[in-house]
Amino acid sequence: MINRRILTSGLLASLATGLGSCGGGPDLGGGTSSANGKKDDWKKSFGQNPANDSLDIRQPRTAPATVAELMEPGKLKEMTLGNPAAKVTIIEYFSLTCPVCHKFHKDTWPAFKRQYIDTGKVYFIARDFPIGRSSGNAAIALRCDEGNFFKLLNLYLAQQRRWVSQEVRLDAIHAIAAPLGLTRTKFDSCLANQDIINGIKEAKQRGRDLGVIGTPTFFINGKQLRGAITLAKLSAEIDPLLA
């Protein structure tokens, strides 16, 4: 019998090694089993498990997204940190199952936040781009407790081996958020909340329309960067804009 934890760990490690980005593949059909064994057809909108995702087969847009397009609000509340009046705005499209997102938030995020967000130099916006149905369900958990959005984002990324697997495990997904106060009753209610579901689907589609084909994807005052970029790379992009 294949050990699920070993398989998942191997998958995450192999994907992270290349330091590229996680593919934002096409949304493939088929429901996924919930905790009670029933098929949840709406989850097809989040595609397949990350192991089966491929790059978006559609042609990328030929012209860069404009700043006005990037800053247009979606259906869900914009999740932000920092000074809205800062000279630099950075948007990150993330997937909670993406090992490259994990690497960025582990290696770069703490120092980047201290140096640029906490000092008011950068206004930061985080946007959902779930790859795979597990990521879609975890994204719902974030939206179910928006007061802890950024804490949960980092927890899900840091603890991917606890909940990312070949099948959706709602108990494991909820267990990450439970210590911060998200009850299972509220989580289950959010899983059935069509406004949240549609908002996450719309956020991903808007990302695609803006040229996002994988995660993490960053827009720095409109300039697009992909992958687990380093603090040095971020500084090289940000510092001239602050001059």
Explain the layout of strands and helices:
Layout: H1 4-17, E1 22-23, E2 32-33, E3 39-40, H2 67-71, E4 79-82, E5 88-94, H3 99-107, H4 109-117, E6 122-128, H5 133-144, H6 149-158, H7 160-163, H8 170-177, H9 184-191, H10 194-209, E7 214-215, E8 217-220, E9 223-226, H11 231-242
Parallel strand pairs: 5-6
Antiparallel strand pairs: 1-7, 2-3, 4-6, 5-8, 8-9
Helix pairs in contact: 1-3, 5-6, 5-8, 5-9
Overview of the structural elements:
The chain is of the alpha+beta class and 243 residues long. It contains 11 helices and 9 strands. The protein has one domain (33-242): Glutaredoxin. Helix content is 44%, strand content 14%. The chain has a 5-stranded mixed sheet. A two-stranded antiparallel ribbon has the order 1-7. The chain has a two-stranded antiparallel ribbon with strand order 2-3. Helix 5 (133-144) runs antiparallel to helix 6 and helix 5 (133-144) packs parallel to helix 8 (170-177). The chain starts with a helix and ends with a helix. Mean pLDDT is 83; it is low at 1-18 and 26-58.
Write a brief structural summary:
It is built from 11 helices and 9 strands. The chain has 243 residues and is α+β, with helices and mostly antiparallel strands. It has a 5-stranded mixed beta sheet.
SS class: alpha+beta
Stated plainly, the CATH topology is called: Glutaredoxin
Quickly count the domains: 1
The CATH architecture is 3-Layer(aba) Sandwich
Strand order of the largest sheet: 4-6-5-8-9
CATH class category: Alpha Beta
What are the defining features of this structure?
alpha+beta, Glutaredoxin, single chain, 44% helix, two-stranded antiparallel ribbon, 9 strands
